[in-house]
Write a structure and sequence with these properties.
The chain has five helices and no strands. It is mostly helical. It is flat, with a radius of gyration of 25 Å.
Length: 151
């Protein structure tokens, strides 16, 4: 009986070691996939920076993005669809991110249809953040005044 317990423990240790290796492999694959997406998007931002540096008009900027960024985005869309067709678990973090990209693809590629649209909405995000922080700070300022003792 003692020997079978030791063998069982060894088997569990081997199994848990195998799980660690498998989980590590999954993380590595997910990291490689994330890096691929980031590298592709970096190309788009590089093209956008070129259009800003050259002070292109919206029409020229649109032509520039159609020429250089559209092929990158088309390849990325095909890659995302390929990953979601069985290579990535849809319920994983990576799968959720890829589904989000696919679901919002039209909005994410608006800069390929309108020369005035940037590839991201960072300017809007920063403006909203200021309003939210102001609201959050104002919520507590009146409460602090109420709690102050009267002289």
């Amino acid at each position: 009986m003692g020997r079978s317990l030791r063998e069982g423990r060894r088997a569990r240790l081997r199994w848990s070691a195998l799980l660690v290796v498998v989980r590590s492999a999954v993380v590595i694959v997910a990291c490689q996939a994330c890096l691929h997406v980031l590298e592709e998007l970096a190309k788009v931002y590089h093209h956008d920076q070129i259009s800003k540096d050259q002070k292109m008009t919206p029409t020229d900027r649109l032509k520039h993005h159609k020429l250089y960024s559209r092929p990158v985005m088309n390849d990325l869309k095909l890659w995302i669809e390929d990953q979601l067709d069985g290579k990535v678990e849809p319920n994983s973090g990576l799968g959720g991110a890829l589904k989000y990209l696919k679901k919002h693809w039209k909005a994410l590629t608006l800069f390929l249809k309108d020369g005035k649209a940037p590839p991201d909405n960072n300017i809007c995000e920063r403006a909203i953040k200021k309003a939210v922080l102001n609201r959050k700070n104002a919520m507590f300022s009146s409460e602090a005044l109420r709690l102050r003792p009267n002289p």
